[in-house]
Amino acid sequence: MNNIISTNILRFFILVLIQVLICSHINFLGYINPYIYILFVILFPVKNNRVLFIFLSFLLGLTVDIFLDSGGMHAAACVFIAYVRPVVLKFSFGIQYEHLTMKFDAIEFGSKITYITVLTILHHIILFYLEIFSISKIMLVLQKTLFSSIFTILLCVLITIIFSRKTK
Amino acid sequence: MQQIINFIIRNKTFLLFLLLFVMSILFTIQSHSYHKSKFINSANFITGGVYNSVNNITGYFNLKSQNDILVEENNYLKSLLYNSEQQTDDSFFNDSLSFDKHFIFGSAKVIKNSYSSTDNILLIDKGSKDSIKQDFGVITSKGILGVVNKTSKNFANVISILNTNSQISAQLKKSNHFGSLTWDGKNPAFVQLLDLGKIAPVEKGDTIVTSGRSSIFPKGIPIGTIEDFNLDDAENFYEIKVKLFNDMTNIEHVYTIKNIDIVEINNLLNENKNE
């Protein structure tokens, strides 16, 4: 139990630092940045209580916001995906999730990608919509969402593969 | 009462979500209006410190290009100095105590640059300790950069011209026709000059400078050249695409501009408004 708490605290700070110091300055093709800090929300233990989880996600988003001077857009996107995560979990893992036996290290690759993709796209749509903040520029929102999502998903999947503990 | 408490306990997750979500939306709305973002900014002890210490390391990587820029500027200033009509003899000296100055310049370093989002905000390593205040102008050796927004003790936030909220008064260099400079949030190499009257003699390649009508920038600071122009929908004003002199993606050394008369000017403007 102690191990889980310290892992998550460490993960929180490392992801925020990597995000604000490296990932937000990549600017591939001018504007494409990965937002890998949502790995904290993605990998947060399933069984923990949801109130704490939503609050921590808000804190995560707010920290990134303060660093990037972006108001509250990251916080809003993070809180949202933290709230809808149980639904997405049920959607991508089905029965495995309902029995509360799942661990992120020991799940099928296909459903893991579905899970990460859904959460990433939801996060990015809200983030870029709040960043651009105008309905008339919806095409720009979708364009940014699409390209950044591809980048984020790729990096998130790679990181989860590299840092997963083999259970087999 | 019992029922209400029961309801809150049953829906505590949803209520917490709603509360936090609304809070962050409010912060976002605040950040989209000029000079309103109160709590969420990077000009504080922790974030400023992190950016500063990282910049101490990464600053070495673009030393060469920054030195080239500074030498280029020195070159230009030297050519101005030694070619001027005025004789630069011993009696000519400049100190900060002379009273005929309207603008005081200071130097600073950008420790966080940003150009990829639609509302870009920079962080510089000078703050209220160095008497930087809100509404100081910030320029580089090549042209205009932005306006100071929030300051903390050691750091200050600068609203870049690459920010959809920023509006800066600009004019043609060859005539006094002026308009306002805005950004459409797309390409960091180009900004838009709007509200320039149809009667103005606009040509491609013309230089755009600051107009000196706002109390922030002195007149004649270079901004960019006209890349393309067309009339707006009502056909009364030009919409001009301006190519910036500055490379906004490579900025390190900047100058802050303090207007000594800013209080006087603002008082006068407010008096006019109240009448």
Automatic annotation (TrEMBL), chain B:
Pfam families: MreC. It comes from Snuella lapsa. The keyword Glycoprotein does not apply. Keywords: Cell shape. This is Cell shape-determining protein MreC. Coiled coil: none annotated. The keyword Signal does not apply. Residues 110-257 form the Rod shape-determining protein MreC beta-barrel core domain. Belongs to the MreC family. NCBIfam families: PRK13922.9-3.
